[in-house]
């Protein structure tokens, strides 16, 4: 079984616009239950505000509690699924990269800390007062989406930008995310993560990525250490482990086949590598996940 990669057009039975989708969360899960009832990923950016409901949200094998006032962010390619204990309510919107960045040519989505790096938490817990303010913004966004007013698309993208700015101010409160966001290293990290996503199966050493970025390996390690307090090798290893977990959970492939898919010379080496990073053998991880 492969992880489904969903696109916006699959959610678009009620709208002609293929680059943006906005809905109440309860209506979203009712309308699209057959699409989202199992782990999946997207090719778009997603934002959810919960106003009611409890449960868990698993994103790339990290579990987060769902409670009123929680906001979640997802970048393209991340695997996730919801598990609710009580009925959820709130708002959800998602859009393509082009939908936002064609409107703001000098401002990319990666400038927002929750989309800047996979290393940054994909969740924000708001205060009751802030949640009420955000709920009004999300409600206005949803209302505009349902109308067919003049300059509708421009209004929608500006409301999304307004929401992202307010969320960024909350997100960086009492943290050093603002320093990281505007640091000259941010573009290097963004490019590095993109390259790692493309090449991690074949290329597991920092020199390859440094050469691709036209910088020295020493400087690349300095950038990674300064921005996310890790080494380049750690970043590559984490992406490899994530893919290994995805294949172990979402495919029926044997562990030996998975080790070959990830370009390990043999299963024994793959198993040793996996255990050194997770504390579990691949076999134990697979059993524990399904138990």
TrEMBL record:
Q: Where is the HTH araC/xylS-type domain?
A: 190-288
Q: Which SMART domains match?
A: HTH_ARAC (SM00342)
Q: Name one Pfam family in it.
A: AraC_binding
* InterPro entries per UniProt: AraC-bd, Homeodomain-like_sf, HTH-like, HTH_AraC, RmlC-like_jellyroll
Asked if the keyword Transmembrane helix belongs to this entry, the reply reads no
Presence of the UniProt keyword Chloroplast in the record: no
* Protein name (database record): Helix-turn-helix domain-containing protein
Give the species. Answer: Corallibacter vietnamensis
């Amino acid at each position: 079984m492969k992880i489904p990669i969903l696109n916006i057009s699959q959610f678009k039975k009620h709208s002609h616009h293929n680059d943006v989708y906005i809905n109440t969360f309860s209506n979203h899960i009712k309308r699209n239950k057959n699409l989202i009832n199992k782990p999946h990923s997207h090719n778009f950016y997603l934002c959810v505000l919960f106003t009611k409901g409890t449960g868990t949200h698993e994103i790339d094998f990290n579990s987060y509690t769902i409670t009123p006032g929680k906001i979640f962010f997802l970048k393209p390619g991340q695997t996730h699924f919801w598990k609710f204990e009580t009925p959820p309510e709130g708002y959800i919107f998602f859009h393509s990269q082009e939908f936002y960045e064609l409107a703001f040519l000098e401002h990319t989505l990666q400038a927002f800390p929750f989309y800047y790096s996979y290393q940054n938490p994909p969740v924000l817990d708001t205060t009751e007062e802030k949640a009420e303010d955000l709920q009004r913004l999300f409600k206005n966004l949803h209302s505009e989406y349902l109308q067919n007013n003049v300059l509708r698309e421009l209004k929608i993208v500006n409301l999304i930008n307004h929401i992202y700015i307010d969320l960024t101010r909350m997100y960086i409160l009492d943290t050093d995310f603002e320093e990281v966001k505007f640091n000259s290293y941010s573009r290097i990290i963004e490019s590095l993560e993109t390259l790692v996503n493309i090449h991690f199966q074949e290329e597991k050493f920092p020199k390859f990525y440094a050469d691709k970025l036209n910088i020295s390996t020493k400087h690349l390690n300095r950038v990674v250490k300064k921005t996310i307090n890790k080494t380049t090798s750690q970043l590559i290893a984490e992406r490899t482990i994530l893919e290994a977990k995805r294949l172990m959970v979402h495919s029926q492939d044997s562990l030996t086949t998975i080790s070959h898919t990830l370009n390990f010379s043999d299963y024994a080496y793959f198993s040793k590598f996996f255990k050194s990073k997770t504390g579990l053998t691949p076999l134990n991880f697979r059993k524990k996940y399904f138990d």
